[in-house]
Predict the structure.
Amino acid sequence: MANVKRAERPLSPHLQIYRWHIPMLTSILTRITGNGLIVAFLLAVWWLLAAATSPEYFAIANAVVTSWFGDLVFTASLWAIWYHFLAGLRHLIYDAGRGMDIPTAEKLGLACLIGSVVLTVITLLLVM
């Protein structure tokens, strides 16, 4: 092959000049919360299987689920469910061809973030 002299260019934007945007953050959060919901699902399934197995095994699973760790996982998953719901509504708006301009996309992203926190707090207050 012929020797080709390639130009020296950066491979990707440098972290020093790259700025985070709300739509980028919400896209990443959608993936993280989707995977995080798997942890809550597995914890709930483990608790149900332990209930069907034996009282001793259920006592262990119940201690984990009702501990601070279980409360943290299920509260975070409640937020993740609300966030996924609102992000899904945002994507329905995008699928209709609306909200694709930068200011509107940033407002919709903030609405997903703030709305999911508010709905989580309201849900927790209603349940407790």
Q: What stands out?
A: The domain at 22-127 is CATH 1.20.1300.10 (3 helical TM bundles of succinate and fumarate reductases). Residues 22-53 form the longest helix (32 residues). The chain has one domain: 22-127. Residues 21 and 106 are 8 Å apart (CA to CA).
